[in-house]
Design goal:
Chain lengths: 775, 154
């Protein structure tokens, strides 16, 4: 024991490069497809080429006889496997039986019909072509509004109206608000279907160890524990006999926040063939069979006073469900309703959702999940209202913001906004972009019949999902922090980061709390046999909920460290600082390493204290967090071609305290890219027969490097009172703030032509048509 | 048929089916799983490797077409544990998140710097056109390429 030299370096708040990167930049990370096992077989799934058809017969014999093929399974074989679960309970929810392989009917292009298992992926692919399926093709419907029309083909014959669910919410007195209004503006707004398009497609390796009755399932998922619970249930396997490992996961964006047929199917196959089996989704399958996002048709009405005060908002929301409910499908539009007032002070809302079955792949959570749709709606409507009242779009926003003295603020939709200063990011963004000067320039350009637009979006969002009563599977998160006998620290998190960088940010939290270096800490996630039960990574929750669980586990551990330290120092007055416990009276100290060794050696124990240094916490958040911000986009439009050029993109986001600015910038950039994708390029298009005509990268326009503008990312900081870290979440902010800013900008540019709204994506063709029609 | 090729300085001689894709040779036969299959159609660039000094997409090339070639994959960049400047720059500039596109991005970035030792932002962005990243919005990748070029030119 020595006198103290205290380590003063801290890590939280610093731009620290990520600890997960060395394996990723050297090509040594292990994604599902990189897993090899002795005796491993390969599965290929035969899928329906039709959106709606009856299966008359399936002849698997030619495939079974093909070289290298071990077996072929169809829906008849998998009848004993449970259905793909929908995790949402609500009154009158119609839940079709979602079997893992089609039985007598197919409901969308890509519907799995049979699985071929062979000793080689090429041979499996060859054999899949030999399966003969006799289909009786039926009429399909792929558009939710067409599906609601009388006489439309029934997606599920038992429900001829195609209604999957309805949901109604009223807040305040909407009829009074509309009766008292000076002005009511109405607009139909579409948030088109999008393909999440994680760079790594889904993939599963299932390894059944018969002698142990143990199924190991490697799957590219955001929620390994929930997959274990639900897939074990589908397979009729005791949950403790199943281990789910999410190895390196190559992006998810919500598309891997799910339980998919293929996860159970591979488990089934492996138990049957008694060998490991691998299935890797092709990109085409990823387009047609992994969930899509958005898929809204929204009818908005906003009532306001002549001075711009918003009195009430009505929304009729048509949600394209697709053919089935996946894990959270019916929940997503409800998130839109929760967010529908945005960050504006109106207490009167009415929302009606109708979820509609279509012969398409199901929709579910995609980055933002319901909040981008809501933000796009309200932010477009505020601009529509401003145009109607001939008000400046910034002014009308300042007029309607919930002011900073009103927090916590109860919304008309039943939320309690935690903290906010909504005017601050807008003021900052207006300054940064040079708003006043730009408006003058715009006036000049308009005289020259040139189209320049300035678009503002001021968004709020629900993050840190969330309090368990409001979350289908529980919304808490878990953490274990343990210190080995040699003094090294391991964090086990129930979150499942797949690009968000929590191996770094959680280490930053622990390093500061314990006073150790980042190299002393290891963060482990994604293995149900190693990590205590957890919920996962989605809904901008990992740091705000999972990080908080880490923080509280650290507090418990620190208390124990101090007890051991006090015992070793024979003191009753000690401080833990800089990785040492210091006797406040004598200045003598003992290191974390000495304490750890003593705690495991256990020759002597402090009173009422067990050996070892380990602490586990399951933290239940008392509320969501509510980040916010302002994005301003300046566009120039080529009057000849309709080409949109983004001149400036200014993002001012308030995500509370920032643990690692480098990572936060990356989250904002990536989020904005996906928002821009929706605003300008991306759209999943099904034709009238239910064929996905944008079913590969040749036809689905993603943001690429040469298309992206430079994003000027800035922040204001309003800490969240919901958690001790003061963090709010930032994973989805860019996506949520972006699309209305872009569309508002383009509509603003075209306003002299009388344009009030254009639906996304704003392709040059669409803009050119608007220009051509007005000239 | 029998093919001979050199990958990261190591010689391989192997009988392969004519239809075997180069990426599957790299991943399954050579065991170099850093090169990723992202789209099977040349459109995402996750499978980019260097073949005889040129960046190519290994998902749409047959292994037999690479007979006699010298190939460098992401695993061949670091030397004696020392990272290549492009790898180092991707790390420093946070040019990756999920990491799946990263090996291809790094190989494409090396090609950009080979062609334009001091690339402009526009040259970088056009050079990366064939490589999709869904996480970063490309901005930190652009910074990484700039930083790598500046460092490599020193």
């Amino acid at each position: 024991m020595a006198t103290t030299t205290v380590k003063t370096e801290t890590f939280v708040g610093k731009r620290i490069r990520r600890r997960e990167d060395p394996r990723l930049i050297t090509g040594t990370a292990t994604y599902v497809e990189d897993i090899q096992m002795p005796g491993m077989h390969y599965a290929m799934i035969l899928r329906s080429p039709h959106a709606a058809a009856r299966i008359r017969s399936i002849n698997t014999k030619p495939a079974e006889a093909a070289p290298g093929v071990v077996c072929v399974f169809t829906g008849k074989d998998t009848k004993g496997v449970g259905v793909v679960p929908c995790g949402v309970a609500m009154p009158d929810l119609r839940v079709p039986q979602h079997t893992i392989l089609a039985t007598d009917r197919v409901y969308f292009v890509g519907h799995p019909v049979a699985v071929v298992v062979a000793r080689d992926r090429y041979l499996a692919r060859d054999a899949a072509d030999l399966i003969e399926v006799d289909y009786e093709v039926l009429p399909a419907v792929a558009d939710p509004e067409k599906a609601l029309a009388k006489g439309a083909p029934a997606v599920h014959p038992q429900w001829p109206d195609n209604i999957a669910f309805t949901y109604h919410q009223d807040g305040g007195n909407i009829d009074k608000a509309f009766a008292e209004a000076d002005v009511v503006v109405k607009q139909r707004i579409v948030s088109q279907r999008l393909v999440p398009m994680a760079m790594e497609t889904r993939g599963v390796v299932a390894e059944w160890r018969g002698a142990d009755r143990q199924l190991n399932l490697y799957t590219s998922t955001q929620i390994p524990h929930l997959v274990r619970t639900l897939v074990a249930g589908m397979l009729g396997l005791e949950e403790n006999r199943m281990r789910v490992i999410a190895p390196e996961v190559g992006g998810g964006f919500g598309s891997k926040l799910n339980v998919y047929a293929e996860e159970a199917l591979m488990g089934f196959v492996s138990t049957r063939i008694q060998k490991p089996v691998k299935w890797i989704e092709s990109r085409r399958e990823n387009f047609t069979c992994t969930i899509h996002g958005r898929g809204h048709v929204d009818y908005y009405e906003v009532a306001a006073k002549r001075d711009g005060t918003i009195l009430g908002i009505k929304l009729k929301l048509i949600q394209d469900v697709g053919a089935y409910h996946q894990l959270l499908t019916p929940l997503i539009p409800q998130l839109s309703v929760l967010m529908m007032p945005g960050i504006y002070n109106t207490q009167n809302i009415r929302a009606d959702i109708v979820g509609v079955f279509t012969n398409c792949v199901p929709t579910d959570a995609y980055r933002g999940a319901g909040r981008p749709e809501a933000t796009h709606g309200i932010e477009r409507m505020v601009d529509v209202l401003a145009a109607e009242l001939k008000m400046d779009p910034a002014e009308i926003r300042f007029k309607n913001f919930v002011t900073k003295d009103k927090f916590p603020y109860a919304t008309a939709t039943g939320l309690m906004y935690d903290s906010g200063d909504y005017a601050a990011p807008l003021r900052k963004a207006l300054d940064l972009v040079g708003y006043v000067k730009l408006r003058l320039e715009q006036a000049d350009l308009r005289k020259q019949r040139k189209y320049m637009g300035i678009g503002i979006s001021t968004y709020g969002e629900i993050c840190a999902i969330g309090p368990s009563p409001a979350t289908p599977a529980g919304g808490w998160e878990s953490a274990t922090v343990k210190i080995d006998p040699t003094g090294k620290v391991t964090i086990l998190t129930g979150t499942c980061p797949h690009g968000q960088g929590e191996e770094t940010t959680f280490a930053q939290i622990a390093a500061d709390e314990l006073g150790v270096g980042l190299d002393d800490i290891l963060v482990i996630r994604g293995d149900t046999a190693v990590v205590q039960y957890g919920i996962g990574t989605f809904g901008s929750r990992a740091t705000a909920v999972g990080g908080t669980a880490v923080y509280y586990a650290l507090q418990d551990l620190k208390a124990k460290i101090k007890k051991f330290g006090a015992m070793l120092l024979e003191s009753d007055d000690v401080t833990l600082i800089g990785g040492q416990v210091v006797d406040n009276k004598t200045g003598k100290s003992t290191t974390l390493q000495e304490i750890a060794r003593a705690s495991y050696r256990a020759l002597k124990l402090p009173p009422n204290t067990e050996p070892g240094l380990i602490a586990t916490r399951f933290w239940e958040p008392p509320n969501f967090t509510f980040p916010f911000g302002a994005h301003i986009v300046v566009t120039d439009i080529d009057g000849e071609t309709g080409q949109i050029k983004i001149r400036r993109y200014v993002a001012v986001d308030d995500c509370g305290n920032i643990l690692n600015p480098l990572i936060v910038d990356g989250q904002v950039h990536g989020g904005v890219a996906q928002g821009l994708g929706q605003a300008l390029w991306e759209q999943a298009v099904y034709d009238d027969d239910g064929q996905l005509t944008t079913g590969e990268l040749m036809d689905y326009a993603l943001p690429r490097a040469h298309l992206m503008p430079w994003i000027e990312s800035h922040h204001t900081c309003t800490p969240s009172p919901v958690n001790p870290l003061g963090v709010k979440g930032v994973g989805e902010a860019g996506t949520i703030g972006c699309s209305p800013a872009v569309v508002n900008s383009v509509v603003d540019a075209l306003a002299p032509l009388g344009v009030r709204h254009i639906d996304m994506p704003l392709t040059p063709e669409k803009i050119w048509k608007v220009l051509a029609a007005k000239h | 048929m029998n093919i001979n090729l050199t990958i990261n300085g190591k010689s391989y001689s192997q009988d392969v089916e004519p239809r075997l894709l180069l990426i599957h040779f790299l991943r399954d036969i050579a065991g170099l799983t850093g090169t990723h299959m992202g789209c099977e159609t040349s459109l995402c660039g996750a499978c980019t490797v260097e073949l005889n000094g040129k960046a190519i997409k290994s998902c749409t090339m047959f292994a037999v077409q690479a007979n006699g070639a010298e190939i460098v994959t992401v695993e061949g960049l670091a030397n004696d544990g020392k990272l290549d400047p492009v790898q180092e720059a991707f790390w420093n500039e946070h040019g990756l998140q999920c990491g799946f596109c990263t090996p291809g991005m790094i190989m494409a970035s090396k090609q950009i710097i080979d062609r334009h030792p001091s690339p402009t932002e526009e040259e970088i962005r056009h050079g990366l056109e064939g490589n999709v990243c869904r996480c970063t919005g490309y901005q930190h990748i652009v910074n990484a390429v700039k930083a790598a070029a500046a460092g490599a030119g020193k």
